Amino acid sequence: MTEAQDTASDTALRTTGGAPSDDEVPAHGLPTPLLEPREGIPPVVAGEDALADVIAAFAGGRGPVAVDAERASGYRYGQRAYLVQIRREGAGTALIDPVGCPDLSGLGEALTGTEWILHAATQDLPCLRDIGMRPSRLFDTELAGRLAGFPRVGLGAMVESVLGYALEKGHSAVDWSTRPLPDPWLRYAALDVELLVDLRDQLERELDRQGKLGWALEEFSAIASAPPAPPRKDPWRRTSGMHKVRRRRQMAVVRELWTARDKVAQRRDVSPGKVLSDAAIVEAALALPPNANALGSLPGFGQRMSRRQLEQWQAAVDRAKALPEVELPQPGQALAGPPPPRAWADKDPAAAARLSAARAAVSALAEQLHLPPENLITPDTVRRVCWEPPAPADPDTIAAALAGHGARPWQIHLVTPLLAAALAG
User: Would you say 144 and 205 are in contact if contact means Cβ atoms under 8 Å apart?
Assistant: First the structure.
């Protein structure tokens, strides 16, 4: 570590007052641009022999391991990783190409028991699991920043406010499936893990100073042990602009076009939006065109679209138009929980009053603790408990209900008294 980095680490966080402020930067002044990795840009690992060397090096490293992944969102189908960056003391930084090395389970096994440091872990863990990398312990620097009360928790903002360095973030949205990857992109990728260990150490100290380290450790453990999310039900309902579609027959058109588009995108390995835009799907659903010529006159279907493509999309429209009434989708999804809060006053005024009191109490405590209300307790959990309170609504049953909805012990301890008062009121 350089002398400047030592200074940044030593002076990163002020130790007086409450949560860090937005303009709180190290005492040495303006942030220092971080332009090059300490050991330069490492070669991209794309073969089994090179991967074996990396596994051996990182197995022999010391301390936690910084991990990041780059995807090609908006360019390719799905959320697979196209580059994995790792760094550990004693091993340096490695850049691994999951296209050339699709199975990284050996690396994951070599790091068993090691703490993994990720920023916004829930974004990267699904694609890391797909290639065999599953942490048993982790430290999420974004979540740590939220719990510590930082107003901006992006990686660049955190590195700047905590360590005094400015990261170049110009390549975050590029097509990481590009091969070969340009050197400026690789430099950016290597720098993303360059200071994660230093950031983790400073955040741990700050959380400990605020008395929140135990809360953070519970959160990190819950993330590491959480099972993969189940597939979303009726994903076509999330089509942008869906609120304009009112009739069931039109909904069926959205469903058919969405499904046809998804199959094409998966086959071509491109982002669905590059095959057909959400706006075009909604236009077709609203218009219910009688033929391909009429379809081609709608926004999103004309110009460069071939006749064959128009006929393909018109076939999906025709399938929806031919469905019997009983097979048409119902308006809206079946709710697995309480109704939208805006409907509570009409459906159950007492529940609406409970929810209002609970929300106000949660917001007040979150402000006092210098953390976002949704990190103190999820809004969905508050809604569920207020809509169907446990009986009797005493602290023990409320605590059990919170635990059943996935709340962590620290959240249960803090929130149970608030909800007990709101339910009693």
Answer: no
Alpha helix segments (H runs only) across 68-211? 105-110, 121-130, 141-148, 155-158, 183-194, 196-209
Q: CA triplet 403, 404, 408: central angle to 5 degrees? A: 30
Under 8 Å between Cβ of 352 and 383: no
Q: Which of 406, 407, 389 is nearest to 398 (CA)?
A: 389
In sign, the C-alpha dihedral spanning 125, 127, 129, 133 is: negative
Question: pLDDT (tens digit, 9 = 90+) per residue, 284-334?
Answer: 999 999 999 999 999 999 778 999 999 999 999 999 999 999 999 998 765
Q: Which residues contact 195 (CB under 8 A, 6 or more apart)?
A: 5, 34, 159, 163, 165
Whether the CA torsion 32, 38, 41, 46 is positive or negative: it is negative
**Looking at the domain that runs over 341-424, which CATH code has it been given?**
1.10.150.80
Span 117-140, pLDDT tens digits: 999 999 999 999 999 999 999 999
Question: Which residues of the chain form CATH 1.10.150.80?
Answer: 235-327, 341-424
DSSP string computed for 42-101: PPEE-SHHHHHHHHHHHHT-EEEEEEEEEE-TTTSSS--EEEEEEEEETTEEEEE-TTT-
Q: Write out the H or E segment, with its range, that includes residue 262.
A: helix 248-268
**Nearest of 89, 81, 85 to residue 44 by alpha carbon:** 85
* DSSP one-letter code for 235: G
Residue type, 316: A
Strands (E), 141-281: 165-167
Amino acid occupying residue 114: T
Helix axes 409-424, 213-225, angle to 10 degrees: 100
CATH H superfamily, domain 18-225: Ribonuclease H-like superfamily/Ribonuclease H (3.30.420.10)
- Distance in angstroms (rounded) separating the CA atoms of residues 84 and 87: 10
pLDDT at 337: 80
Work out whether strand 137-140 and strand 62-71 pair parallel, antiparallel, or are unpaired: unpaired
